Amino acid sequence: MYKQLINKEAKLAVIGLGYVGLPIALEFAKHINVVGFDINQKRVDLMKSNIDPSNELEAKDFEGCDIQFTANIKDLQDVKFFIVAVPTPIDGSNEPDIRPLIGASTTVGKVLKKGDYVVYESTVYPGCTEDDCIPVLEKVSGLKWKEDFNIGYSPERINPGDKVHTLSSIVKVASGDTPESLENIAKTYELVVKAGVHRAATIKVAEAAKIIENTQRDVNIALMNELSIIFGRMGINTFDVLEAAGTKWNFLNFFPGLVGGHCIGVDPYYLTHKAKSLGYHAKIINSGRYVNDTMGFYVAKSCVKRILAKGKSIIDARILIMGATFKEDVSDIRNSKVIDVIKEFESFSCDVEIVDAHADKEEFKHEYGYDLKDAPTGKYDAVIVAVNHKEYISLTEDYFINILTDIGEFVDLKGIYRDEFKSVNYWSL
Questions:
Q1: What is the pTM of this model?
Q2: Contact (CB, 8 A) for 328 and 387
């Protein structure tokens, strides 16, 4: 298979051209023939014009790429190597929602042929590829796994907004259903991953490796958030504590904050789901998820208490929240926990306004039902800097004094101004 691809005797297709799929497709398209497939025709049309709908890539990143963008399944009929990179979200009950994955598997199954390869990159619970995806491929195609086609799993490690840890510079984990398929899959990824490819023992091992990467971060951040609650009651700044503790060589540098996005706030639920199906309650992971999932409510309630302590009525208090994306310097609003802060303030009948330097207004309105303001309007009883966009880091204390009432509270969730601001009513996690 590998030789067919590099000799351009076979095509590679990426199914799903979002934050993960598009960068992979473009990297491969610098070396081999690629078909980029997405069910959203509007997104496909933008990519045909060298525009990344996710605002991660520039027009120059499309140059020199041998790629065909399409939403037509007929364009996949002569593809031999499929990479599935669709989202794997959770539902309203924090249970895995693998419908996009099953849908993508159905699409591939319709064009699957003898000798083809299918590699999944979507984050899943261990066993999902073999137990949930392969049966769909077999049913739709009429082919038999291992006899007629081969399967692999290679989890994505792309970090949105990160220009240092890019696809080519991060070691890729790859797995296959046979030693031969593993080698073909690994060599294919080595075309675009300069950092190298780790060959995992099995598909389940690769699935598990991916899911614990973000689970580990989630648990560590939960500890920081819990510490921030404790230290808040002591009247000491958590970031000052962490700065002091960080002088020890083996202290791990994690920080408190809102935990959202498509990975850290989601992936642990895939693992706890699988654990539950095996009769085990994952105590530490679930506890960490509870702490992180409730931080938005904690932030808003703490701010409300501070406003009330100043003798200000909380009803109709004006609140400004700066930042609506799930992390700094990206437009990605998926699973943004800033929404929890907004809703909690609204439960107290506060008047909440939101601004963001990167988020798309229409997308935010469609996803969450809230309007984004172009700029602050008037004076506020509290200003919460929820996301440390570069545009906000450069703002001065005088800027915030001018938009705060005399008793207004300034909430710095990332602790970015703690050593600089002396005149505002300052609070951070």
A1: 0.91
A2: yes
